[in-house]
């Protein structure tokens, strides 16, 4: 083990998400022994704009690291390494000399770059870059956000061309600060995060010069791309001397934490939205059915492992909408009982395209609809339709994955907040027609970052030992008959059709 830390008994994982930051301490058996979490502000200066304060995120990161160590009564010397996982496409530009951000971070949900994406798509369509980067031109990804900042913030382009202003996704911002910041901080990212920028070529695992020219992004401002599991360097306070040794985008980290190390193994994380990712092995598969081809992870000098991902914008957020906007429930936990109060959905379907649809349709002109209403429908049917929408959207993504890979899924491993809802998980198994398996460990995203860091320093011997730490908490098997399933799928597809084309392309 590197750095004389062979006796350290724990691995740390810094999990920086869209709404909060957590630090978890994991033992050799993959068990979480301590954790601390703090939220940060969601800034919405205009409709469709979503920002975070990078300085606030760094402050929260330091707080949760200290808080988890205090709760565990441990010090930095007890940690063999730390892994980072974070919201992926969220974009930060900062001054290399002072460490000051030049603007708030532009969050992955932000849609201000729609005009940029439309202009880039005008001649060759939204799939103009897909063969090289595996992604469509969409506001979701980092490249257009970088271009917007270079154009919108006075003086930033000139400073970026001179190497004074640098770009990073949130992982890069944290690694830079953790390793010293303006006093020698490392400007790095990993292949999984870089694959979400629209700027990295899947074939070379490096920044694509032609795309940088197309978007007008100076090469000098980009971080160095590293493997997901590798020793990057020692950290400064508050973890002085501990190596940062792992870095994964949040959804790839969940795949790693679910130990989906074999081609064909898949997981779905249910949060604000849902993200379904399948391991496709060491050769990228070009999606022809609306999915994203992404780098899943790379361990050391081994070949990169690729995946197909289906990103769903709204699942758990729909339940929050019922609570906060409609006042139908007081707490999100109440929705399961309300859904169980009815025998079926009463013919009601909700398509939660609040800001368009992500995979597999990628329609920014879609908007949310509730269809099938009759005088018979009441709040129980609405609640049930909201929960069903998460499962129907996931089923659409699974269909696209099967079409792209030519192989059926044998099972789906699940994690995230919504997996505590027993009704949803049973309905998900029903509409997929395959087992749905909930992990024994709920914190699979942070666990994946810990696994990556631990492998790099020899804390765990390899993937087989990691598999032994994983266990199933519960498995749901399909109960729905094929006729009922297919009828529901047809009605869902008709509901989605009615959500399309609501925004005029003006």
Description:
The chain has helices at residues 54-72, 114-121, 130-133, 142-152, 156-161, 170-178, 191-194, 209-215, 250-257, 316-324, 334-340, 379-405, 422-432, 444-456, 463-469, 482-499, and strands spanning 10-16, 20-26, 32-39, 51-52, 79-86, 91-95, 105-106, 165-169, 188-190, 200-201, 206-207, 224-226, 229-234, 243-249, 266-270, 274-281, 292-297, 305-312, 349-351, 369-371, 412-416, 436-439, 472-476. Strand 2 and strand 3 form a beta hairpin. The chain is α+β, with helices and mostly antiparallel strands and 506 residues long. The protein has 16 helices and 23 strands. Helix 9 crosses helix 14 (444-456) and helix 11 (334-340) packs across helix 12 (379-405). The model has no long low-confidence stretch (mean pLDDT 94). The strands form 7 sheets. It has a 7-stranded mixed sheet with strand order 17-18-16-15-21-22-23. A 6-stranded mixed sheet has the order 3-2-1-5-14-13, sandwiched between helices. Strands 4-7 form a two-stranded antiparallel ribbon. The longest helix has 27 residues, at 379-405.
């Amino acid at each position: 083990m590197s750095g004389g830390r062979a006796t350290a008994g724990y691995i740390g994982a810094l999990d920086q998400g869209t709404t909060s930051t957590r630090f978890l301490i994991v033992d050799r058996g993959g068990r979480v022994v301590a954790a601390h979490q703090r939220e940060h502000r969601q800034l919405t200066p205009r409709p469709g704009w979503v920002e975070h304060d990078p300085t606030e995120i760094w402050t929260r990161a330091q707080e949760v690291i200290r808080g988890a160590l205090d709760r565990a009564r441990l010090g930095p010397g007890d940690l063999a390494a730390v892994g980072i996982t974070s919201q992926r496409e969220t974009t930060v530009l900062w001054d290399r000399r002072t460490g000051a951000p030049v603007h708030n971070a532009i969050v992955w949900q932000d849609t201000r770059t729609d005009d940029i994406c439309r202009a880039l798509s005008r001649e060759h369509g939204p799939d103009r870059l897909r063969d090289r980067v595996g992604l469509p031109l969409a506001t979701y990804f980092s490249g257009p956000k970088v271009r917007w900042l270079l154009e919108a913030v006075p003086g930033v382009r000139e400073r970026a061309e001179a190497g004074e202003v640098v770009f990073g996704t949130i992982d890069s911002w944290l690694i830079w600060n953790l390793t010293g910041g303006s006093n020698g901080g490392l400007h790095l990212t990993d292949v999984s995060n870089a694959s979400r920028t629209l700027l990295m070529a899947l074939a070379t695992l490096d920044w694509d010069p032609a795309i940088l020219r197309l978007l007008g992004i100076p090469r000098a401002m980009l971080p160095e791309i590293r493997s997901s599991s590798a020793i990057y360097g020692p950290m400064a306070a508050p973890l002085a001397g501990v190596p940062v040794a792992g870095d994964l985008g949040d959804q790839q980290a969940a795949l790693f934490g679910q130990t989906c190390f074999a081609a064909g193994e898949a997981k779905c994380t249910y949060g604000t939205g849902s993200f379904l990712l399948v391991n496709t092995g060491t050769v990228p598969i070009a999606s022809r059915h609306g999915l994203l081809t992404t780098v899943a992870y790379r361990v050391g000098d081994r070949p990169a492992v690729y995946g197909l991902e289906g990103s769903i914008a709204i699942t758990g957020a729909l339940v929050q909408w019922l609570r906060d906007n409609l006042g139908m429930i007081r707490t999100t936990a109440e929705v399961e009982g309300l859904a169980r109060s009815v025998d079926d959905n009463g013919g009601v379907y909700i398509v939660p395209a609040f800001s368009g649809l992500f995979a597999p349709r990628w329609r920014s002109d879609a908007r949310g609809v509730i269809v099938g209403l009759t005088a018979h429908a009441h709040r129980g049917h609405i609640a049930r339709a909201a929960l069903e929408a998460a499962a129907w959207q996931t089923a659409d993504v699974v269909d696209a994955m099967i079409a792209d890979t030519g192989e059926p899924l044998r099972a789906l491993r699940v994690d995230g907040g919504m997996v505590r809802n027993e009704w949803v998980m049973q309905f998900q198994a029903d509409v997929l027609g395959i087992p749905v398996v909930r992990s024994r460990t709920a914190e699979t995203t942070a666990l994946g970052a810990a696994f990556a860091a631990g492998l790099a320093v020899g804390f765990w011997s390899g993937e087989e030992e990691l598999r032994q730490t994983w266990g199933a908490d519960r498995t749901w098997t399909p109960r729905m008959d094929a006729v009922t399933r297919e009828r529901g799928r047809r009605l869902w597809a008709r509901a989605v059709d009615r959500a399309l084309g609501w925004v005029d392309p003006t």
